[in-house]
Amino acid sequence: MQQVATVHGGEPNPLDSTGLCLLSLDGGGVRGLSTLYILKGLMDRLNLARPEGSPAKKPCEVFDLIGGTSTGGLIAIMLGRLEMNVDDCILAYIKLMKMIFGKLSKRSLSSLLGKIEPRFDANKLEGAINEVISSCGAKPTDLFNDQADRGCRVFVCSITQETKEIVRLRSYPMRNKPGIPATICQAARATSAATTFFEPASIGARRFADGALGANNPVDEVEDEASDIWCEDTGDLKPLVKCFISIGTGHPGKKAMEDNLLKFVSKTLPALVTQTEHTEKRFIARWRQHYDSKRYFRFNVDQGLQDVGLAEYQEQGLIESATEGYLDHQAVAFRVRDCVENLKSKQSVPPTLILLKRFGLVFSDQNECMWLTSYSGIRRAWLFWNNGRARWQVPFERNTKFTGREDLFSDLTQKLQQESDATTKIAIMGLGGVGKTQLVLELAHRVRERCAVSWIPVNSLANLQTAYRKVAQNLGLSGWDEIGVDILEIVRTYLSDEAIGPWLLILDNADDLELWRSPLTSEAGAKRLMDYMPRSRHGAIIWTTRDRKVATAVARENVVTVRQMDESGASEMMRKYLIDPSRIKIDEGLLPGLLQKLTYLPLAIVQAASYINETGESLKTYEALLSSHDDEAIELLSEHFEDDGRYSGIENAVAKTWLISFEQIRHRSSLAFEYLGFMACVDPKDIPRSLLPPSERSSPKQQTDAIGILNAFSFITRHDDGSAFDLHRLVHLVTRGWLKKTGELPACHKQAVLRLSELLSDISQTNRARWRLYISHAQYAVGGDEKKCNKEEVNLAEKCGDCLYYDGRYREAETVSQMVLASREKVLGLEHPDTLSSISNLGSVLVSQGKYEEAEAMHRRALQDREKVLGTEHPDTLTSVNNLGSVLVSPGKYEEAEAMHRRALEGYEKVLGPEHPATLISVSNLGSVLDSQGKYEEAEAMHRRALQDREKVLGPEHPATLISVSNLGSVLDSQGKYEEAEAMHRRALQDREKVLGPEHPATLISVSNLGLVLVSQGKYEEAEAMHRRCPQI
């Protein structure tokens, strides 16, 4: 059977069960019976599909909002406010029409002057309405809006006689929109007081007429009303709508118009008919996407009702027959089927309450809850759900073969549900491969509709920061892409805001104890990673770790230990993962022994099943292979993943499983094994496919097949988008052990270093998006305890340090720069030019962290040795002169700084020429140090020269040119030349926004500078706007 449910992130879209269902009912007198027969067709088919014995649903249990005009308004009141089923409503409607239209009023049809007079008795209309109200157990004097909390809201359209404007009478309160205190009967009279048919209805001092003249097809009114209720701030209703149904009363033709008189007949009613049809076409065009995706439906009998007048109650049989024929038409039948399929999944509980309960936003106070479900509270909850990327940030799909562990889920659920005024913290501890990650992944999928979920790998600080940056980007947090920003603090601040609702933060593979209990840097007051954990009573943090010390450090006594599976659970898992169950039937007696040798470890079971599936071998053959390999090799490979919880008396079957898999992969595809060896030499998390080494000997298909083999053996896990994958941490370690044993590790490591050097050949800031993919892998390749002496490794480390520096990750850049310097000092000597470049780079990194004394020492050493080795006028020597001058400015050593910059400028002019970019840097720097000393005239001359020459050499929009524009503006401001200073800062701001983007730190400087010069001129309003913009940037 065709389904209309959509898929959202691999799961059914909650919109299909909790989205809004809206019903719009046209006006049309007696022909309103056609509306009811269409609705009966829908409801009968809907209830027929319900489980046997289930009570039939009424429209008020399906629709969240029903709006109607004229007789459509009467039907809306009966279905929604009086909560009638369709069959009872049809009987009541027929009786009501007979009572109303059975006899004309005694008054004449029109006056001599053509004034339209009512044709029917309003008292009969009122009496008929009161009879219907009383039959439903209500009183005619009951208020239409009696403040009761009903799942279905109802409104009807009417027109005020005084202003001729459309008004909506509601059965529910609306914020900032005072209601009209009408009884049920008065609301019904107001919407059905059709001109030429009845006297206008009175409510207090106001008079109302039939709303059909302004909204005979009230679908626009229903849309506007729903927007006011559920998304008043944005008006973006469409993402909230599950099903929107509009039902007409049949195409009226000319006969309906003949029921009216004079000008009303010749002008007004034709416009009414045209308005209904135009509204239908216009609305379908605007809601085309919902129409095509089977979420918007319009039903209206197109043939057979042309000769039925608005008051011809005796045509009941014709109306029923024409409507039945319409519904049986094949094209209409398909739409009816799709509509019913849509409605079948609707939950009867109001979607707003369901949504709020998911996010923990429902209050015990009924009035407060009603207000929240009606207005802006629901918008916040809904938008929080609707932002799929921000709310669900987990890199893995649900494991449909997940088995057992219900005792652990019970424990975890109990811990998560404990009431607390602090963040819930839980650590899940166990042996590598025991299934911690899969357990938390299943938990995440189980709670994803109740809270936001973010997944962070913690195998390295670099990966953690990358994942945090991605979370911040998806959440749209300000500053996520700024260089040097503390991304951990940004995310911590956001999650600590209790207004955002409940969330779950998963920190996977948190195995480094020092990362959590020690400061991240050696600076005074530096934070530990633990200090960056958010605090909210609506939040929960779950760590997975192999180390019990880490578990108790982060969660204290709140530790859940994942142990080996029992034989029953392990057997069920093996049966789920084996493609051919008959293999177990053949060797049923061998299964317990095989599972025992696999130590009931989930990862070992999955890999064993993968091997059997791939090779087609029997369990008996696999067990024989597992038992036949060299114990010495197994012991060697086991050394890489020993834990405190070692198994006694049982061999480490994980290593045996992987040893078998290694050989099988190498036999099937040398390229797959090459990829595995390569991945063992880079960070195991987030390995981009583009990182894998290209191979001229293999086709794209062979490369894809090689990756598929690794995936088939469960060695790698693909990310959802297929652009990257993860190598299991233990597989990574055991593979390195295997490569060491075979003597292949050095070659694999060299291949990884050369590939990364190739990919990082362009580390310009404009290429940041690309080289960011490879930083963590470069860090891994050049890291480790051993000293890096290989030239290729040192060069890669230098590039890695530059990338970290450009990315504002100065602490990490310092660590790498120190390593490069130590290696070059050892291999090349203290005074080698490359060594001196490393000293200079380290000095620049230190300056960026405010470590001016150390930076000054580095730059003085670089300068001294470059003067000795290269000479006083070598460009590299002059670079050190310039760098030393810049670092001297920060501690206020202006005289020496000025001397350095004058020397650098003089040397550059002599060696490189007056217009060389390096020369112009010195011109600019000298201008800045002169400005700092109050030597404004000379500073201005320097900045004007730098600007003029940079415009000529680099162009007017080059970032360096814009630095000169900004510097000139600042020195002009210092001299009180405000108008020209303002012009400079406006130019710098405009061009930086264009070239660098509105959120670049340099752009922010221009915003601030412009604000300051505006203040100096008394332009306070614009200055305030500039300064208010700064925090947002």
How would you describe this protein?
- The active site is at 70 (nucleophile), 210 (proton acceptor).
- One of its GO terms (biological process) is glycerolipid metabolic process.
- A motif (GXSXG) lies at residues 68-72.
- It is built from 48 helices and 19 strands.
- Strands 3, 4, 5, 6, 7, 8, 9 and 10 form an 8-stranded mixed beta sheet that branches. The protein has a 6-stranded parallel beta sheet with strand order 11-13-14-15-12-16, with helices on both faces.
- It is flat.
Radius of gyration: 38 Å
Oligomer: single chain
From the 3D structure, determine the CATH topology of the largest domain: Cytosolic phospholipase A2 catalytic domain
Tally of individual helices: 48
| Number of distinct beta strands | 19
CATH architecture label name of the largest domain: 3-Layer(aba) Sandwich
* Count of the separate structural domains: 6
Helix content: 55-70%
Shape: flat
What amount of the residues lies in strands? 5-15%
Low-pLDDT residue intervals, each spanning 5 or more residues: 1-11, 104-116, 254-274, 349-389, 629-653
First CA to last CA: what distance? 52 Å
